[in-house]
Amino acid sequence: MTQERFDRKNIDAQINELRAQISELLKRLDTAVGREAEALRPKLKAAQQRLRELQQTSVDAWGDLKPGLERAWDELQKSLNQAAARFKKS
Question: Residue 68 — very low, low, confident or very high, per pLDDT cuts 50/70/90?
């Protein structure tokens, strides 16, 4: 390696460039995480609604509402797992 690469001004410039790159990466990550979380909100809301319906029904109605709750739960869980997997790969 050359002496120029270890010049104080050069090192300062490289550190500033790395700082800028890290800031940009964090912004993109924050935006991506926000989008993933927002995509999960309607699914969570649907599961909560099914649960509320279930809580307000009789035992006889459980059989009618259970499949809807299971579908909502499964979809929420699947979406959450997919979102988490995308961030684990990065």
Answer: confident
